[in-house]
Hints:
It is globular, with a radius of gyration of 24 Å. Helix 3 crosses helix 7 (119-131), helix 3 (67-80) runs parallel beside helix 9 (149-162) and helix 6 packs across helix 7 (119-131). A hairpin with a 3-residue loop joins strand 7 (194-195) and strand 8 (199-200). It has 20 helices and 23 strands. Helix content is 31%, strand content 18%. The chain has 4 domains: 6-176, Dimethylsulfoxide Reductase, domain 2 (3-Layer(aba) Sandwich), CATH 3.40.228; 177-223 and 288-373, Rossmann fold (3-Layer(aba) Sandwich), CATH 3.40.50; 225-285, no CATH class; 413-538, Beta Barrel (Barwin-like endoglucanases), CATH 2.40.40. The chain has 539 residues and is α/β, with parallel strands linked by helices.
Amino acid sequence: MTNSIPEIEDADCIFIIGSNTSVAHPLIASRIYKAKAKGAKVIVADPRRIHVTSVADIHVRQKLGSDVALINGIMNVILSKGLHDKAFIEERTEGFEKLEQTLKNYPPEKASEITGVSTEDIEKIAIAFASSDKSTILYAMGITQHSHGVDNVKSLANLSMLTGKIGKPSCGVNPLRGQNNVQGACDMGGLPNVYPAYQVVTDENNRKKFEQLWNTQLSSKVGFTIMEMMHGLEDGSIKGMVILGENPAGSDPDVKHVKHALEEAEFLAVIDIFLTDTAKIADVVFPGASFAEKDGTFSNTERNVLRIRKAVNPPGEARPDWQIICDISTRFGLPMTYESPEKIFEEIALVTPSYAGLSYARLENGPIPWPCPSKDHPGTPILHKDRFTRGRGLFHALEYRPPEELADEEFPILLTTGRFFPHYHTGTMTHNSITLENEMSEGYIEIHPYDAKDVGLTSGENCKIVSRRGEVITKAVVTDIVEPGTIFMSFHFMEANANVLTNPALDPICKIPEYKVCAVRVEKLEETNTPEIKAAANA
């Protein structure tokens, strides 16, 4: 996030796109509700009627995968009405002329044709966002998990710069991270193209610094993404894998293919706190420690670095992840002899510029947001206040590109995926909670009454959903939460997992799969039972 979570409460306008905030980030959603109570305008762009739309001043339901066209249409209106921040654009950005030329191709009428959003609503969003003093953008995986996810994010950056709503309190572009330490994992180099603090692996100076630190030789090539690793297991270019705290056998697209790839590995080790579907395939499973059973730090979605402290001992043979990784590395011939998590953090501060001013002693007094480049620096709750990291902010002139799969005669409905309120991801943890299981013990699809009528379905009946990659049998809930021509499904339940169906098509830049759009057909099954399916409206 470019800004801090508390600032959301003081925003005048909140633009939520691709985020089911009250389900996936309920504490952040509470800030939205407080801002609304103070008079903020809330704008939601989501194909489903999600819970947060109940407080929205404007809710638009764009067609799946049409976000770039929607944002371009909004910016077209801002320019045509002279609502852009001319001084900010002149002083702080570059590439505006190319963007301006591209936006001429997206008048509200053209954007409406692509997105299904009315021209009136496009204009209302543009005026509300640009006219408000403090406008903030909140987004999540509904923006990123597309074959053009990078374009989606760049479009939102364009919107913030065009209106000068960045580098200021209660403004900015704010991605909401999925788990408590996803940001920290990225900060520490959990990406194939960077060392810690996003220092690129292709830079010789970066490589030499880490070679000296770790006393080993490092590759100058960019590594593989998750989907590329799976292909590598199949073609033999990758022989083995260690998977830490991840369940790709349930969470990756086209899971039948993923499971086959994992089974092809010559050696597969998994570190986790429960025996996941992925762990069941592994040659070796190392029991890890949960958050309450280890010391260390987490870096959260607003870039706050927080100390965590062990409350209880790990059960049985479970150990903290860092100890397991050190032992594996040592067995491979690269000794790791860290004495404690604090010693690891000291190394992080040594070689990670954005963490350079942090220490356990400082974090004892509370969390500090990076970048924190020196011991006397207070941390940076707002990014880009005076300048962008690259100097001037770069506008990107982007054209709309449709999803890789569209509805056709054989697969006439589009599937999108997400979460239901009781569960998280593949349910590794939440299925082990009796309370949450009682809230929702089986999966289902949401289908619009028009589409259900075409298939002959009523709520509670079994149906089969088929894509080009597989098929799933589950219950149907008939509801107008979704639009005609689309269905919604989670991947919380392995017996009815949407990722059997989803498309592994990748964004060409960041290589994220297109989880959010794939073409399917729905078929009614003759034999069915109809147990109670709880509160789809709470989804």
